[in-house]
Write a structure and sequence with these properties.
single chain, about 450 residues, alpha/beta, TIM Barrel, about 30% helix, binds pyridoxal-5'-phosphate
Length: about 450
């Protein structure tokens, strides 16, 4: 369990979990539950483990893992760049005053408006993903620095929904049948577009470094052919993100330094082999920075012991604040943050409060046998792809997010209330709805 907790987490003698010098039971009282608690120390340590190893390279935090103004500000201070994949993520970075030249703009279906927004903002790189997008570029006219996204056909040891590097992916241009070469040729013809290099992201929650090495080898092979056919030389390659993290005690998070080292060595080897100039390397980690920094606190509401069957411990959140178990079958662990010293008993199932049988956060976990309403349940390693995928299913308000550091807790995303839930609704006659109270 302890390998899943943020760096600053400490169990106290009274059985309470402390994170960032804050007692989680006090955080729950002050900010309510469900509550996503982000440990600033872990964010910084993970970010630095990439930036210090990358040297002259570039590290862009993948905003899709978790996106809000304060996090953009924190990452700016740490010298990272941002990978955004929508106008909304870009608008968030802009609201944080994030330097646009350190932003990479992605998306398999960027609208003309989004491309114009990115160009006006002055983003450092736009990653081109389709022939339609190449057509759209011609309507922009202004100068743009581009990467071309390719799918190097690398199978990864991860859930199919988070595999992106296979040839029939919706992302990028496949190497097979000359598609990527034809795309590069068209892109090189777009006036005012400077093609800086290639981008590849092979998937997420990857534990095997060999997948990154294979991707580099395929990119180098393609670039060797591109040099011969089109005289194209890449200044930069961006290998995306994807490094996995442990969500359960039986898993071990690979070290960020190990993935960077594997990529760097592969680039030196594969580009050297083909007598290609060594490009600048960029990466886009998301989960491996934000994931381990976050724990989610829930209040236990009901405990239902089915005679001869499961015990369901239901909490005050669920699939609306963490869709991953329902979407990908993701596994987590849980414990009571208010009684870490209580002996563990039989296995229970931690369920959410949504009207779906599939709304289960943790299928089998040992909690104290006397788990009861008002206990504080904690699910660790939940900083990534939880809040960023949150919904208002069943019209449940989204939780708050707090950043903790040295005994201070700052609410960086306020909890939604019922006014927020109905704020976009209109009456039958089209007039706005006003609830009056929250
Ligand atoms: C293009 C791109 N870059 C980076 C990432 C971040 O991946 P991860 O959070 O697994 O590091 C993703 C995730 O889907 C992605 O699509």
């Amino acid at each position: 369990m302890h390998n899943l907790l943020p760096a600053s987490a400490r169990p106290m003698s009274d059985g309470h979990l402390m994170v960032g010098g804050c007692d989680t039971t006090e955080l729950a009282q002050r900010f309510g539950t469900p509550l996503l608690v982000l440990d600033s120390m872990t964010l910084e340590a993970k970010a630095r483990s990439y930036t210090q190893t990358m040297g002259a390279g570039r590290v862009f935090f993948a905003c899709k893992a978790l996106c809000c103004v304060a996090l953009c500000e924190e990452l700016d201070g740490l010298g990272l760049g941002l990978d955004v994949c929508s106008g909304g993520e870009l608008a968030t970075a802009q609201a944080a005053g994030f330097p646009a030249h350190r932003i990479v703009f992605h998306g398999n279906n960027k609208s003309l408006e989004e491309l114009q927004q990115a160009q006006r903002a002055g983003v450092g790189r736009i990653v081109i993903d389709s022939f339609d997008e190449i057509d759209r570029l011609t309507k922009i006219g202004a100068p743009l620095d581009l990467l071309m996204r390719v799918t190097p056909d690398v199978a990864t040891d991860t859930h199919e929904s988070v595999q992106t590097g296979q040839h029939d992916s919706k992302f990028g241009f496949a190497f097979g049948n000359g598609v990527a070469m034809a795309a590069l040729e068209s892109l090189l013809d777009v006036p005012n577009a400077r093609v800086v290099g290639l981008h590849s992201h092979i998937g997420s929650q990857i534990f095997e470094m060999s997948a990154f090495r294979l991707a580099v080898s395929r990119l180098a092979g393609f670039l060797s052919a591109a040099r011969d056919h089109l005289g194209f030389i890449a200044e930069e390659i961006n290998l995306g993100g994807g490094l996995g993290i442990a969500h359960t005690s039986d898993q071990v998070s690979p070290r960020p330094e190990a993935s960077v080292e594997a990529i760097r060595r592969a680039v030196t080897h594969e580009f050297g082999l083909r007598h290609l100039p060594k490009p600048l390397i960029a990466i886009e980690p998301g989960r491996s920075i934000a994931g381990p920094a976050g724990v989610t606190l829930y209040s236990v509401g009901t405990v239902k012991r089915l005679p001869g069957g499961r015990t369901f411990v239901s909490v005050d959140g669920g699939m609306s604040d963490n869709i991953r178990p329902a979407l990908y079958g993701a596994r987590y662990e849980a414990f009571l943050a208010n009684r870490m010293n209580s002996p563990l008993g039989a296995q229970v199932t931690v369920a959410g409060k949504h009207c779906e049988s599939g709304d289960v956060l943790v299928r089998d976990v040992h909690l104290p046998d006397d788990v009861q309403p008002d206990d504080l349940l904690c699910i660790p390693a939940t900083g990534a792809y939880t809040y960023s995928m949150a919904s208002n299913y069943n019209r449940i308000p989204k939780p708050a997010v707090v950043m903790v550091d040295s005994g201070n807790a700052v609410e960086i995303i306020r909890r939604e209330n019922y006014d927020d839930v109905v704020r976009l609704d209109r009456h039958l006659d089209g007039t706005p709805v006003s609830r009056g109270t929250s």
